[in-house]
Amino acid sequence: MPVIEKTEKAPEAPSPVPGKATRAPSFFRGGQTSHLPWILLTIGVAVLVLLPLIPLQGLAWGNGADGMRRLLDMYKLGEILQTTLILGFGGLAVGLVMGTVLALCTYSMTPKSRSFFEFLPVLPMVIPAVAHVVGFVFLFSPENGYVNTLLRNLPLFSGDSGPINVYTLPWIVFYTGTHLAAFVYLFVYTGLRNLGSDYALAARVNGASGFRALITVTIPLLRPTFVYAGVVVLLLSLGQFTGPLILGRREGIDVVTTQMYEISAEYPVDYSLAAALGTPLILLAVLLIIIQRKMVGNHNRFIGQGASTIDNRMLNPVVSLCCSFVVGMYVLIAAVLPLLAITFVSFSPFWSGSFDTSGFTIANFRETLADQRVLDSIVTTLYVSIVGVLLVLPVGMLISLGIYNRDKLWRPLPAILDILANLPLTVPAALLGFGFLFAFSSQAIGIYGTQLSLILAYMTIMIPYSVRYQLATLVSLGRHTMEASQVSGAHPVRTFFQIILPMSKTGIISSVSVMFVLLTHEFGVSLLLRAPDASVMSVVLYDQYSGGSYPKVAVIALIMTVMTGVGVALAMIFGGKKALEKF
Questions:
Q1: For residue 439, what is the domain's CATH number?
Q2: More confident residue, 16 or 388
Q3: What is the rounded CA–CA span in Å between residue 501 and residue 374?
Q4: Rounded-to-integer distance, Cα 471 and Cα 464, Å
Q5: How many CA atoms lie within 13 A of 220 on its CB side?
Q6: 295: buried, middle or exposed (CB in 10 Å: 19+, 13-18, 0-12)?
């Protein structure tokens, strides 16, 4: 029963039916019958999320732990694990420093500059991952990279290659950190805005310098932000697949995810060995989440209640200009130059590293768009992405309703739903893809090679995003709106369709656009589930890159970027600039 607090001026709300007390809606009322739909929902979500994980781990530890024993005897295992850790912690270090600097610079700009620059550091996240890596190859390849060609024309450098080799481990780490800096920027910049300026101003009034106020006040208060961002970026770095696969194969650099892909390319597929190879990543993910909770501890110690909406800082225009330059240089290197390189190659007859524009042609576009496989991949990408989003949206809403109304459900259910909904975020996409490959190839399911397999996989990896967005929408609506409808006698279903959905329309459309963009980017799961009749654009782009058809690769990358641009535009139309934070 909704609780309405009484005051001297607020009488108790009348019961919808005279003479009868208002009861909680049957949808959330106690008792075994009312909990049955939520139990069935939890079971369904558990099956979908655990399907690519539990059977694989059963193979790794089954038959006397045969998979784990053979893993310990695997050639180059130590080197693979070492490279994975270097990439993980190196990407974390680069991304954390770079993203924090970007956030502090943006926060130190004048309001006019900030209104323009604050969303620019997010652009590297908007570019499709495969296209982004290829853009870095076109820029920094030791032989034909445009930046290397430009550097070799300077007096300090000479020769036919270098000085930068993007295929080496240090540069793979740099690329990973540069790309993930956008994630850190979002976390830290949002934390700075929510923190407000009152505490730093109080420190300055008491004689502290700006640097001392930053070190002793601002950064300690942002500790939960740094811990959360650090754990997320470390998990993403350890699970990197696209960058190491495209950049590392030339120099023989392998990480856990790329080694799993190589195992999947052999026939017959050694599922137990690949499952054992992915076990350390799962255990490390669980350990990192536990450490995250321990390090943050009591969140209330770090919550600032300053007037974050009122910015009374005295901002220096010169400092603002310098900060604008720093942010501009990051955006130039991480987003603008890769897109320019892709565009240049798409109009060139071949990729040579030359800046000559006299041979520009649109023949590459005609040839690419005449390729039936490319056209089929565009249709498949649009179909499986749209269907996947439309199916995961109601699932995410139901899970969100269960979590939001945790006080009205059987206590374990909301907690289990919350854990299951966030689990796909902690597992690398390549590992999930391998798990789906094993599950969908089994005789019991047998849907490998179909578009249905991609749709189910896409639904699974989008569950965390769908739940996050729908839950945020419910929180923004507040309980009073739904409780007012229920007290007035409306059935929960009627409340949902006539109150919740209309008021959530803007947030839902924005969320649909964001999830569509994320699915059109997807590569790790799609590559492992590839089939002649189920190949998406990112997989076709990778195949063309492996075959050396670089102008065609550039054209496909541009098409993917345009599709992404449409999704981002829709998200910003309905959700404003803050919609970019959802990426």
A1: 1.10.3720.10
A2: 388
A3: 38
A4: 10
A5: 8
A6: middle
8 Å CB contact between 241 and 264: no
The whole-number average pLDDT for the span 171-196 is 86
- What integer pLDDT is reported at residue 72 of this predicted model? 85
Q: Which domain holds residue 490?
A: 32-53+83-354+369-582
Enter the tokens of residue 51.
């399907």
Between CA 133 and CA 129 the distance in angstroms is 6
Please check whether residue 189 is in contact with residue 242, taking contact to mean a CB–CB distance below 8 angstroms.
Answer: no
492, 496, 527 from 485: Cα distances, Å:
9, 10, 47
Q: Decide: 182 and 124 in contact? Cβ < 8 Å.
A: yes
Rounded CA-CA distance 140/7 in Å is 69
Q: Work out whether the CA dihedral 238, 243, 246, 248 comes out positive or negative.
A: negative
Establish if 338 belongs to a structural domain.
yes
CA distances in angstroms from 451 to 145, 390, 395, 410, 542, listed in the order given = 37, 15, 20, 37, 19
**How many domains would you assign to the chain?**
1
Classified as helix, coil or strand, 168 is: coil
Could you count the other beta carbons within 10 Å of the beta carbon of residue 12? 9
- Residues 271-282 as b/e (b if ≥16 CB within 10 A, e otherwise) read bbbbbbbbbebb
- The per-residue pLDDT for range 198-241, each reduced to its tens digit, is 666 666 666 666 666 667 777 777 777 888 888 888 888 888 88
Q: Pull the structure tokens for residue 38.
A: 């939520």
What band does 86 get if pLDDT is binned at 50, 70 and 90? very high
**30 phi/psi in degrees, rounded to 5:** -65, 165
Tell me which DSSP letter residue 347 carries.
Answer: T
C-beta of residue 143 within 8 angstroms of C-beta of residue 161: yes
Helix 505-521 to helix 372-404 angle, to the nearest 10 degrees? 140
Q: What is the pLDDT of residues 307-342, one digit of tens each?
A: 444 455 567 788 889 999 999 999 999 999 999 999
Q: Examine residue 364 and state whether it is found in any structural domain, yes or no.
A: no
Distance of CA 173 to the CA centre of its chain: 18
